[in-house]
Amino acid sequence: MFRVLVQVFIEKLLYSCPDIDKIYMLIREKKGQSIRERMTKIVADPLFNRLKDKRPGDLDKIVLVPGDITVPGLGISEENETILTDKVSSFSDNIMEDGYKK
């Protein structure tokens, strides 16, 4: 369920707001999958076909930020923290109602 919400949110933002420069996505490794592998799985869903057909380059606007919401400072490196502080103008989180589960 959580992944579906993230997919819908990202696709809708990219498709409806073509002027968005970047979407910084905090993502962690999970079950031996790298963040890149996890992202590949997310955008492989047919939900992204409309975007892939009309504006495939928009998927390159997604910038993966390695991190983990269960650790102090979200597990973000100092370098990424600086980038986020300088570049991000809006923030949204998606946490399941019953709490974060690994």
UniProtKB/TrEMBL annotation:
It holds the Pfam family NAD_binding_4. Keywords: Lipid biosynthesis, Lipid metabolism, NADP, Oxidoreductase. GO terms for biological process: long-chain fatty-acyl-CoA metabolic process. It catalyses: a long-chain fatty acyl-CoA + 2 NADPH + 2 H(+) = a long-chain primary fatty alcohol + 2 NADP(+) + CoA. One of its GO terms (molecular function) is alcohol-forming very long-chain fatty acyl-CoA reductase activity. InterPro entries: FAR (IPR026055), FAR_NAD-bd (IPR013120). The keyword Iron-sulfur does not apply. Residues 7-90 form the Thioester reductase (TE) domain. One of its GO terms (cellular component) is peroxisome. Its EC number is 1.2.1.84. The keyword Lipid metabolism applies. It is an enzyme of class 1 (oxidoreductase). Belongs to the fatty acyl-CoA reductase family. Catalyzes the reduction of fatty acyl-CoA to fatty alcohols. This is Fatty acyl-CoA reductase. The lineage of its organism: Eukaryota, Metazoa, Ecdysozoa, Arthropoda, Hexapoda.
